[in-house]
Amino acid sequence: MKKIKTPIKVRYQETDQMGVVYHANYLVWFEIGRTAFIEALDLSYAKMEAEGVVSPVTRVEVDYKKPIRYGEPAYIETWLDHYDGLRTTYAYQVTNEQGEVAVLGKTDHVIVNTESFRPLSVRRKFPDWHEKYLSALGDDQ
User: Are 73 and 29 in contact (CB under 8 A)?
Assistant: First the structure.
């Protein structure tokens, strides 16, 4: 299974009055990790969008384990948890500099036509994505 680890610089504006990263900002970090994962597969959301296709989030799951604070290095590890040719689930693990798990999460996605918002098959519309996703899953297919 392919995993990508992306460093995150915790910006002051991402923290709340308690000095910890505000809970909703982890969703932004998930997107940073997901984009890095896709780019590591030599794929591009921009190219997908140029073909009139987008990939909305259909479900989010987040478990908060430990706070991350301003100035503390953070890392987001991203991998494919599930892929069936139509739906894709990415998994995320945010850790601090000591490797302690701060947040676990998953996001579910489909691809849709930008005009109709009708779901499309990744397998049919983007066979290169399909093959690379299967490869990234490795033995977990």
Answer: no
